[in-house]
Design a protein that fits this description.
This protein has 171 residues and is an alpha+beta fold. The chain has two domains: 48 residues; 109 residues, Protein Transport Mog1p, Chain A (3-Layer(aba) Sandwich), CATH 3.40.1000. Helix content is 28%, strand content 40%. It is built from three helices and nine strands. Strands 1-2-3-4-5-9-8-7-6 form a nine-stranded antiparallel sheet. Strand 7 and strand 8 form a beta hairpin. The chain starts with a helix and ends with a strand.
Length: 171
């Protein structure tokens, strides 16, 4: 009778594990839930986080932020007026949608060459105005370029083989 009881208990435990494994694959990741709760407690707003692979999406009351790591791909939804920054390798892309507008951030590594002055020329050819350029190295590899075109603002910061392009489109 003792052997039957142990066998039955083992069977019940295995069945419970199989069922809980099936249900857990349908549920949110525990890390997402913990971060949601922390943000909700600090902001007082409802937050929904979904992470999967190299992508994290955070949504809260009319706002959405999407973070892609190691994407290697220029954002397809980037405004066409923004020159495609093609120096180096894209390591991360962040998008944000708010009631005020949209924004994009593209981070690149292994950036070489005369990129500050080149990007400044590309901005001018696309009709951007109020261009401000600061070059921090003799080869124009480091520095900042910022420009505006209507409700579109662009800033490229470069240095030490890395670059960060930020774009904001106001509604």
């Amino acid at each position: 009778m003792l052997k039957l009881s142990r066998a039955r208990s083992a069977g019940i435990i295995l069945a419970a594990l199989a069922i809980s494994g099936t249900f857990s694959s349908c549920q949110k990741k525990i890390g997402d839930v913990m971060v949601e709760k922390a943000i909700e407690q600090s902001t007082g707003q409802k937050v929904d986080i979904n992470s999967g692979g190299q992508k994290i999406t955070i949504q809260s009351e009319g706002q959405k932020i999407e973070i892609q790591g190691n994407s290697g791909v220029w954002p397809a939804d980037m405004p066409a007026d923004v020159p495609k920054f093609s120096s180096g390798q894209i390591k991360a892309v962040t998008r944000a949608d708010t009631p005020e507008g949209k924004s994009w951030s593209v981070v690149c590594e292994n950036v070489t060459g005369n990129i500050v002055k080149d990007f400044e020329s590309q901005l001018k050819s696309k009709g951007f105005k109020n261009i401000s350029t600061i070059v921090t190295s003799g080869e124009s590899e480091g520095g900042v370029v910022s420009a505006e075109k209507e409700k579109l603002k662009v800033v490229l910061m470069t240095g030490k083989g890395a670059a960060s392009l930020s774009v904001v489109k106001e509604l």
